């Protein structure tokens, strides 16, 4: 990361809090480190579009704090989205566990 990107690396959470999805996308594409609390701040702001981008495009994990933030503000569509994503991840992990125990014969 060059010196120009260092100036935006720390305040990325400010852009997330403001809901500036274009700025967040630009910053990350130009070398800004992913800010771990970005998904939390997106949830706190009720910004489902930004949260989806962070989770689906950038691979942010869905932590309990993200779910709690969505619940705190009563954002039902966001809670539904998060529940669906967590449920799919759990089902996928269970499938991997099941198939790991199977013996394949040809």
> What is the CATH architecture annotation?
Alpha Horseshoe
Helix content: over 70%
Number of domains: 1
- Quote the average pLDDT: 78
Distance between the termini: 50 Å
- Please provide the ordered H/E string of secondary-structure elements: HHHHHHH
Largest sheet: none
CATH topology: Serine Threonine Protein Phosphatase 5, Tetratricopeptide repeat
* Backbone structural class: mainly alpha
- The CATH superfamily turns out to be Ankyrin repeat-containing domain
**Percent in strands:** under 5%
Number of helical segments with 4 or more residues: 7
Q: What is the global morphology?
A: globular
Rounded to an integer in angstroms, the radius of gyration calculated over CA atoms is 17 Å
Runs with pLDDT <50, length 5+? 5-9
Total strand segments = 0
Can you describe this structure?
With 106 residues, this protein is an all-alpha fold. It has one domain (3-101): Alpha Horseshoe (Serine Threonine Protein Phosphatase 5, Tetratricopeptide repeat), CATH 1.25.40. 72% of the residues lie in helices and 0% in strands. The chain contains 7 helices and no strands. Helix 2 (12-18) runs parallel beside helix 4 (38-44), helix 4 (38-44) packs antiparallel against helix 5 and helix 4 packs parallel to helix 6 (64-73). The longest helix is centred in the C-terminal third of the chain and has 26 residues, at 76-101.
Could you list some keywords that capture this structure?
106 residues; mainly alpha; Serine Threonine Protein Phosphatase 5, Tetratricopeptide repeat
């Amino acid at each position: 990361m060059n010196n120009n990107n260092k100036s935006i690396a720390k305040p990325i959470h400010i852009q997330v809090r403001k809901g500036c999805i274009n700025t967040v996308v630009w910053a990350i594409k130009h070398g800004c480190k992913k800010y771990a609390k970005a998904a939390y701040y997106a949830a706190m702001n009720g910004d489902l579009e930004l949260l989806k981008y962070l989770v689906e495009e950038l691979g942010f994990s869905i932590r309990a704090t993200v779910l709690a933030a969505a619940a705190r503000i009563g954002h039902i569509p966001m809670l539904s989205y998060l529940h669906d994503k967590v449920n799919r991840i759990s089902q996928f992990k269970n499938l991997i566990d099941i198939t790991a125990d199977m013996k394949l014969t040809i």
